Amino acid sequence: MLFRKMPASEVAVSTSGGRVPAHVAIIMDGNGRWAERRHLPRIAGHHAGSETVREIVRACVRKNIGVLTLFAFSSENWRRPEREVSLLLDLLLSSLRREVDELRRNGVRLRFIGDRSIFAATLRESMGEAERLTEPNTGLLLIIALNYGGRWDIAQAMRTIAREVQSGALSASKIDEQTIDDHLSLSGVPEPDLFIRTGGEQRISNFLLWNLAYTELYFTDVLWPDFNEQAFETALASFACRQRRFGRTGDQLEQVQGA
Ligand code: IPE
Ligand code: IPE
Ligand code: MG
């Protein structure tokens, strides 16, 4: 297990005095519109977006955020024009090759979630190599969701659980929420505390369906290539002001905090 399993939790206290999320999950949306507004090809937006990734990863390292999960390519993104898909995957591969040294130097551990079986061998090998090279690191855990879908994740977990029941290793009556959690891609990682979606859309788009059950949601109109450290601070400040009740009443929480 990478982390002790627990409900969503927050770490330390930020310089502004609020709570800092232990795990931030981001839907990086708006690259295409950013480019279109500049009369540029959509791929230019994806390039600009990859610079934002560097900036936000660095910010997370500086802020001691434990986990950053980025939605880079969804299981539905194959529906895009073939050329955009292939340019996007090329960009992912070249960014990966370029960034892995800096990630290593900064103590970042990289991990991919999603169905990688469909990718070309070169991409799969680079993904595996980047994971291996950064495995010993103990700093930020950077999780990239690639060909990921929340429904795919639940389905693959169910397949494994069904096989375990079939083989007799697991009894069907013992299946509970923890069993499902343990078989999902984010098993062992604390649930996201803060979800950010840039680009103005207010939807989950088949991202971490199970894991976002109690995550604080934050939507901003800022397009991903324009999302900078300051915009990230604004999202963190919004999170810091929220009261996370997990089903309890506000009074109950105040009693605990006051005790
Ligand atoms: C997000 O930006 C990046 C990916 C989905 C890969 P978009 O490409 O979806 O940008 P918009 O939503 O069209 O502006
Ligand atoms: C979600 O963005 C997927 C990623 C950011 C990788 P999309 O732009 O594909 O989402 P929809 O289809 O508009 O909801
Ligand atoms: Mg989009």
Key words describing this protein structure:
259 residues; alpha/beta; Undecaprenyl pyrophosphate synthetase; six-stranded parallel beta sheet; 8 helices; 43% helix; globular; binds 3-methylbut-3-enyl trihydrogen diphosphate; binds magnesium ion
Overview of the structural elements:
With 259 residues, the chain is an alpha/beta fold. The protein has a single domain (18-150, 190-258), classed as Decaprenyl diphosphate synthase-like (Undecaprenyl pyrophosphate synthetase). The protein contains 8 helices and 8 strands. A 6-stranded parallel β-sheet has the order 5-6-4-3-7-8, sandwiched between helices. A two-stranded antiparallel ribbon has the order 1-2. Helix 1 (31-37) crosses helix 2 (42-62), helix 3 (82-105) runs parallel beside helix 4 (121-134) and helix 5 (150-167) packs across helix 6 (177-183). It is globular, with a radius of gyration of 19 Å. The site of one 3-methylbut-3-enyl trihydrogen diphosphate has 12 residues, from strand 4.
